[in-house]
Design brief:
Elements: E1 28-33, H1 41-44, E2 49-52, E3 61-67, H2 85-94, E4 100-106, H3 118-130, E5 135-138, H4 155-178, E6 182-186, H5 191-195, H6 203-209, E7 215-221, H7 224-230, H8 235-245, E8 258-260, H9 271-274, H10 285-290, E9 292-296, E10 302-305, H11 320-337, H12 347-366, E11 370-371, E12 380-386, E13 393-402, E14 407-416, E15 422-425
Parallel strand pairs: 1-4, 1-5, 5-6, 6-7, 7-9
Antiparallel strand pairs: 2-3, 3-4, 8-10, 9-10, 11-13, 12-13, 13-14, 14-15
Helix pairs in contact: 2-8, 3-4, 11-12
């Protein structure tokens, strides 16, 4: 009789299916450029496909896929190709997100860090328009990335990364603003620059050149050993995964929150420090004031949020929770105003517009998130019909204050006949 234990057993390990419906809008979208000859995920794993380009796969192609398993990272470029897309999926899932949408473009001759090129931006913009209100992550905006955060690189490599990051910020600034989105990117880290006191005076100029978009720049801090273990990862991916997993954090500060990092690299204890490396790498106060810094715990595989400032002007006023709250309010106001696009420009419709906007703001007011411009009472909303012969429209003005940051906002909602509502700051 044949030994039953000798019988071969074949186990079929299939890729995980998305945990949400295909028509459900994602909270987080990762934008990246993959090698032209890499696998098309929507073909290899059709169940993960959300939407894809109408063009043929043989040419420029873009697809949106919903990934929820570490195994699916095998389809993404890694640090071997100087890309952080592979590790971004792992970091996002390790930080608590159940799934994430990757929007991947493949164009002949383009590298993962060519995110600011016009043809790449043109392929991503329609997908940004579809996924309004989501957090947009660009892990390779400052690439190409080294294999280690403490790699011995020339100063010119760091300058090139800052230049590419600046170009990416400028390329997507308008689209993030139009679609009520906040972007997250990695601030290039140079071990030489961080320990060189001469460069400390250059940080203000660097951050001044990076201002002007709704993007948060993320960076690591911590001991030399922990940065060797985890610093090669994308800090923006870690924060993005945590934010997308917490539906209760729209208006709450992130400072002090602990985020899981997953397993890091194996590093020999103390050898590097004994050879002359500092036990704790310094971080410039200017970096902490103008970006999002995640400090890696000395003993655990987790990071604590030290700061949460974005690049939106004026500097030092727009933190991540403030910006996300204001964008959520903008999006709600726009949705309410869209109902009046084909309404006649009459006083009665102006009153109806005012009532609709007040109704949208009521939940925020009941939660104590938004109050009147003087810090008390309900937000002030006024509306009027402007029957101009050339350009008739319904117009509404809003004055309020966002708590608990006491951030004042003054908005004007303009609804022109047959056109998309426009919201301007006044």
């Amino acid at each position: 009789m044949r030994n039953p234990l000798s019988k071969r057993v074949q186990i079929d390990v299939s890729l995980s299916r998305p945990k949400s419906a295909r028509d459900e809008f994602p909270r987080l979208c990762v934008f990246g450029v993959v090698p032209f000859d890499s696998p098309v995920i929507s073909q290899v794993a059709p169940h993960a496909s959300i939407r894809r380009s109408a063009s043929r796969v043989e040419g420029p192609y873009v697809e949106q896929v919903r990934l929820s398993s570490h195994l699916q990272a095998a389809f993404l470029p890694s640090l071997a190709q100087k890309s952080r897309l592979y590790d971004s999926l792992s970091s996002i899932l390790d930080s608590g997100a159940p799934e994430v949408d990757f929007i991947l473009a493949r164009i002949p001759g383009r590298n993962p860090w060519d995110l600011a090129e016009p043809d790449v931006v043109g392929m991503f913009v329609p997908y940004m328009n579809i996924n309004q209100g989501s957090v947009c992550l660009f892990p390779d905006a400052g690439g190409p990335w080294p294999r280690s955060i403490t790699s011995n690189e020339e100063y010119s490599d760091f300058d090139d990364r800052i230049r590419r990051l600046r170009q990416a910020l400028q390329a997507y600034a308008v689209h993030l603003s139009d679609n009520f989105q906040i972007g997250l990117m990695d601030l290039p880290y140079s071990y030489k620059r961080m320990v060189d006191p001469i460069f400390a005076s250059e940080w203000p100029e660097v951050f001044h050149s990076l201002q002007g978009s709704d993007v948060g720049l993320c960076s690591w801090a911590g001991s030399f050993l922990q940065l060797r273990r985890h610093g090669w990862r994308s800090p923006a991916s870690t924060l993005a995964g945590y934010v997308s997993s917490r539906t209760d954090l729209l208006t709450q500060s992130l400072i002090g929150h602990q985020i899981a990092l997953g397993r890091g690299r194996n590093v020999i204890e103390n050898r590097a420090v004994q050879l002359g490396a500092p036990a704790e790498l310094p971080i410039s106060p200017i970096v902490e004031e103008n970006s999002i810094v995640l400090s890696i715990d000395k003993n655990k595989a987790q990071a604590r949020v030290l700061s949460e400032m974005t690049c939106r002007r004026p500097m030092l006023e727009w933190s991540v929770p403030v910006l996300r709250t204001v964008k959520a309010i903008h999006q709600s106001l726009t949705r309410a105003a869209e109902l009046f696009v084909f309404r006649p420009v009459q006083d009665i419709e102006a009153v109806a517009l005012q009532s609709a906007l007040e109704l949208v703001l009521t939940p925020y007011y009941n939660l104590g998130i938004i109050v009147g411009s003087d810090g008390s009472g309900a937000p002030e909303v006024t509306a009027a019909a402007l029957p101009d012969y050339a350009e008739p429209m319904l117009s509404a003005d809003l004055s309020a204050q966002i708590r608990p940051w006491c951030q004042s906002i003054s908005l004007r909602v303009m609804v022109k006949s047959g056109s998309q509502p426009v919201i301007e700051e006044v």
